[in-house]
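input
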Amino acid sequence: LFGDVTLYAVWGLPDSYVNSNIKTSLSADKNIIEYDSVASITLTAKVEHTAPSSGAMTNPSVMYNYVQDGDIKTTTADVKSSGVLSVKTVKDSGKYSFKYRLTDGLEPLWYYDGDYSGNAETLTIEKGKLEHMTIKDFKISASTVPYYGKELKDVDFSVKMYNNANKEVELATETPYKWQIEIDKVTQGTNNDKKIVIYPADTDNYETSYEFLVEFEAQALVIVFHMEQISKEIEVEVEYGQNYGANEIIYLFEQAYLKALTTWDSATIRVVESKAPYLDGKALVEGDANADKFDTEYNGINEIHTIQVTFQDASYEVVFNPNNGGAGGTTQETYKYGQFLKKPTDPVNGDLLFVGWYFDEDYI
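output
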């Protein structure tokens, strides 16, 4: 230093003054909440100068620093100026106290550092609970139709999850959701017992995953029998992933065709009357002189197949043999497709009781 200089004494606050004239308090509006990205707990710290006219500090200001579990918590401007701290994340949970510094603007070297000496506040912020989570907009991808019999791993879907405040929860990027058990299969009708697992991106404030039951309607995979001659189509349901042999497909068609005949108008029926249906140009039974027997089969069926049905005049020979395959006594008649068999006179064989006629082969 060069020249004259004057040094001034700086007087601090003795503990006795602080104990008598400085009042501290800490309060929380609540002590436990569930994280929902909206709710929070408000902590309020107060340092009050109860005797501002006593001469020690005429206009003290306060800077607050919250202490969470022994560590200084990063504070905001509001905390520094007002002592109010808002906590809302799971990491905010813990035991809170605070430190403070009293200063006087007129004397920049004049300050007092103190600790809150009352009861610390314990705050608990829980992770979002399953019972308060909801899902919306569950939708199965149109490209993965939920045919019954299909494994769930082959059915894609989308869904959104919302928390207790009805705010959408951000989901993980790579695997946001999946079926709980992917080897389960879609069942016929309403599926309301299938679980999905949802993975939030924010695992600090939400659990790693949440399970929900979803409901959707199964669809049936079909084989379409297209009959261009009469502008009709018949659909028969088949189970996804199963094998369907030629005889089974014939049986499915015959059952559906006979049922359809009961609903068609008389003009349509006249077109096909006494005409046999042919599947992709092949006959339904062996020995038809006009075509080979239908022999198409589908293994592990996984898509809709269309079979063209045409109608042709057809007649069949029916033989009644009363001798169980032996010679003599047989009668033979010609029938067109769709005609009922006429029962001949019951045969007589001594004192034996005639029971009835049977097929030597099951054509159904």
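quick obs: The two ends are 120 Å apart (CA to CA).
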